Amino acid sequence: MEAFITFFSKNFFLIAWISALSVLGAITSYIRKVKSGKITRFSISELIGDIAISFFLGVITFLLCKGSGLDQYLTAGLVGLVSHMGTRGIVMIEDFIPKAINKWLGFK
After folding, report:
1. Does pTM surpass 0.90?
2. Which pLDDT value is given to residue 100?
């Protein structure tokens, strides 16, 4: 537990930044759904679901970018973009991982 508290206190602003980008991605995705007519009226459960999915994707995207050694500004942009994509971002990551593994192993 002490290690978690130490990590959280050292990385508070980073965690807050990733969280804010993820939530903003979810909100813009929700607004886009309302404007396109996919959602006809306000739904708190839909909004919370979008936020949860976007937060998960934001954290996963951040970890993938950090592990790849990408620039922090590029990482921030990708976190916002993938968070906005929501479930489409999950599909994109699901498609990318097998292709990357096959390429790494030399399969076609």
Report:
1. no
2. 83
43 Rama class: left (phi>0) / alpha (psi -120 to 50) / beta = beta
- CA 49 vs CA 13, 37, 95, 99: distances in Å: 24, 18, 22, 28
Which of 101, 26, 100 has its CA nearest to residue 56?
26
3: left (phi over 0), alpha (psi -120 to 50) or beta: alpha
In the block, residue with structure tokens 């206190």: 9
pLDDT tens digits for range 69-108: 988 889 888 888 888 887 776 777 788 888 888 888 887 6
Quote the CA–CA distance of 5 and 79 in Å, as a whole number. 24
Cα–Cα distance, 69 to 23 (Å, whole number):
24
DSSP 84-107: HHTHHHHHHHHHHHHHHHHHHHT-
